[in-house]
Amino acid sequence: MYPETNFYDLICLGFVATMKLCVVLLFGLLLSLAAEAKPKPKDSGKRVVCYFASWAGYRNGQGTFEPENLDPTICTHAIYTFASLDATTAEVVPADAWNDLSSGGGKGFYDRFVRLKSKNPNLKVLLAVGGWNEGSSKYSMMASNPAGRSRFITSAIKLLKEHRFDGMDFVWLYPGSRGGAAADKENYATLLGEMRTAFDQENLMLTAALPAVENILEWGYDIDAVVRNLDFINVLSYDYRGSFDRLTGLQAPLHFQDPLLLDVDGTMKMYINKGVPSDMLVMGIAASGQTFTLSDPNQNGLGAAITGAGQAGKWTQQPGFIGYFEIVEMQKAEPEMWEIKRDTQSQAPYAYNWLLWISYDDEISVKEKADYINENNLGGAMIFTVDVDDFHGESGTIFPLVRTLYNTLVG
Q1: Which pLDDT belongs to residue 12?
Q2: pLDDT in tens, 347-371
Q3: Rounded CA separation 195/182 (Å)
Q4: Which of 5, 41, 136, 160 could form a disulfide with 180, with the two C-beta atoms 3.0–4.6 Å apart?
């Protein structure tokens, strides 16, 4: 086998081969250890939840927003608003079949919204059921008996699975009030437990939108049941003040100088003090502003007298309400007409132009809230709604509010 090689040469050759093999194995081991020692990309675990108002597809001109306008790469979760509850059957149904579904020549927003996952496979897409316009009484009736709850849950799962949603966001506003009943608190807890069991069998997520105000929370929500059954909570921590107060005020200050007035920090601490884990709390941030009409253009600070709601936004067309993209557009069109101030305590901006006074959040105040979320180990932030962020990029950045949240929380 080895010509002209004696016994001792064979021993030496074997020793050398063994040593080479050992060196190769040792080198491989060191490479493996080095790879394990290399820091892995950090997963912050933070959520950026983007609510989409399906009715934005009906807006005219620059205000029109359809599912494809949403950038799914800067959201971890996207929520379609809203599906409805049929009061007669206690079943979950599309709120606007022509807008939501493809059948009958409809626009098919459900399926188009879910297809956003093709651009971000990690995106979780949920369907919100309820909302302010739904009221509370029909949910109270549905939850009051086992048959109603069963029909609600079965129909919800059927709709979610048919359109490939990842779960449901429950937006009953609010148990125990707005036409609800005293038994709603217990019935809501029972409903959540039954939903959790059924949703787990279908591998579906379950979240809910909950109030910012303590007495509404106390009337309608069993905190233990909420914590036990929900994946996370979308806290409606905005619209603290508006034209309904008859005075100008910051709509969602992170901190407020007057301890008697509720602020976002107070809401988050309230939930934590009631036993909700901080990482379940997703802080709500409005991408819209509250508008006011001043009584006197010379009295234009916080707490100034007003005559009522401010004029409607050009595209959103709702008095007292204006989208951030509309604010940016107006300030850019007539910069000399606008005075922009910032509250030093909360970093929240407000702006006025003669009699029109607006409270809103911008990139600076949103960054302040995102930093607060990180510092207090909250679960993330949600934008209500993404379709009124500056999706045209008039400010120089497309979706500046959502992007600020994503960059700060997820990175």
Answers
A1: 38
A2: 999 999 999 999 999 999 999 999 9
A3: 21
A4: 136
